[in-house]
Amino acid sequence: MPEAPTTCSITNIAALVTNDPAQGDGSPLGIIEDAALVIEGDTVAWVGPTHRAPAADQTHDAGGKAAVPGFVDSHSHLLYAGDRTQEFNARMSGRAYTAGGIRTTVRATREATDEALAATLAAHLREMRAQGTTTVETKSGYGLSPEHEARALRVAARTPGMEEVTYLGAHIVPPEYAADPDAYTALVAGDMLDACAPYARWVDVFCEQGAFDEDQSRTILTAGKAKGLIPRVHANQLTHGPGVQLAVEVGAASADHCTHLTDADVEALAGSSTVATLLPGCEFSTRAVYPDARRLLEAGATVALSTDCNPGSSYTSSMPFCIAIAVREMNMTPDQALWSATAGGAQALRRTDVGRLAPGCRADIALLDAPSHVHLSYRPGVPLVAEVWRAGVRE
After folding, report:
1. Is the distance from CB of 236 to CB of 260 less than 8 angstroms?
2. What is the pLDDT of residues 193-207, one digit of tens each?
3. I need a surface site. Which of 118, 182, 230, 358 has the fewest CB within 10 A?
4. 19: left (phi over 0), alpha (psi -120 to 50) or beta
5. pTM for the full model?
């Protein structure tokens, strides 16, 4: 008979955030004080007060640290090459961000080797993991041809730890199609999709002035759904536009950015299963207006937080940093921001196994060098993540 999985008990946790309202204090965070957690194999087997913890094969003393679910970063752009430092420097000197800056990265990415793309992706995943992120989504979108989009997605699909991969051929219209964007739309929804679909779970589109209009976006998302991909939408980032309504219409898992919303947009999100994914690092890096998360939450919408880590408009891999900004600038409470960076991100990825620390969930844990999760926003910029466990393994 096969051996039973090894069990490990993490004890002496000052405050354990489970994101299970049935646990602990009964809040949405389900906080258990003076807690313990038992891991069996790669899964959480038990949570509760330390004095009631069952025996385990191994014991790890958390030393009075707080424990939170590993962060779920549901929106990033890590498949790229090149550098946009000069663009950032210029923007900080007064030039507004536009989608055109993406073309700089497209040129560099097309010229890069597979090995260079893989090395950049792996480096950013390590950086994210060290800051407590245990689940990451990333997108293509810097190749913009069937050949280059497909090879970027192949690189992602074979990279350890890269679980959620999104086809974003509809990032911008490349220069060679500038005179005929409808022809590029047909390519994205046709031959490029055929080449990329085997390596992706999701299909995304930048529905925005200067990128893809409503009809073009619908064409691409509908074609992706027909191939078995689940829609996501870059929606309402730069202007009020049709992106959010389109996301709800096509049953997208998430509408991302949501910076400029009408009351009708908020109502549509609140009445749907589409998650509003907010990306505060982008507004921070571009000096743009921040979305009002509280407006969405009070309407009943589900909100996720993500880094939008990319070389142009949000070059941060830090979910703790984004939590701090969301609390300071987007009217979120510390509890709301943490939930959105964990359970909210999991909902945006339609995952039930991550973003929570309850029996049956994957044992993805961030131990904080602090007695409470509130320190993530109380002490911005301080490296509070002391230990990271992913799938039951301490890293």
Report:
1. yes
2. 999 999 999 999 999
3. 182
4. left
5. 0.96
